# Entry
Amino acid sequence: MRLIQLCILCLSCSINLSSWAAEEGLTLLVYGDSLSASYGIDEEQGWVNLLQIKLHSEELPVNVVNGSVSGETTTGGLVRLPAMLASYQPDILILELGGNDGLRGLPLNLMRENLASMIDLAKANGAEVILAGIQIPPNYGPRYTAPFFETYAALAEQKSLPLVPFLIEGIVQLPELMQNDGIHPRAEAQSMILDNVWPILEPQLESLLKN
# Structure
């Protein structure tokens, strides 16, 4: 008799867990490099974790997965992406890659092709994509830095994507908010990154949550 009761209890728990899993909400995958991987600061201080806290505080059923890797290029990101999509099945993908391509002076046509391929893969997997733009330091020269930055707006227009024009806009211009390397924002600036992302992300979340 106890065995039967235990089986019924387990079945009930299984059903409840399945129902909870189906109703737990959206999955948002942040897929970037060190700017999103909390480089040089505690993970809890990073803008991606602050985003999860904000979503919880506003009682929005969105689970944030940080798939960012410091030093990642678009080539490495393209290699990793199929497995990440298969594992997490995100509803939204924030694509923040290309900065390391630029810092290494890699060909812009390769970066654009890799970003386009990642966008297509994510869409084919059922994910909405938000593209996050990056600028590289001016010492690389305007013949490289200008078309590099313009790549993001051009891709967003071609693929009909929402665009965060420059992920760390308003931060890199203030040396006191940057780490000693002049590339990565300090912990104090992470909320400003979130402020740059949120106005672009919020309408996408609202649209998906209504459906």
Remarks:
- Residues 26 and 209 are 8 Å apart (CA to CA).
- The helical segments are 2-23, 47-57, 74-88, 99-103, 108-124, 142-159, 190-210.
- The radius of gyration is 19 Å.
- The first strand starts at residue 26 and ends at 32.
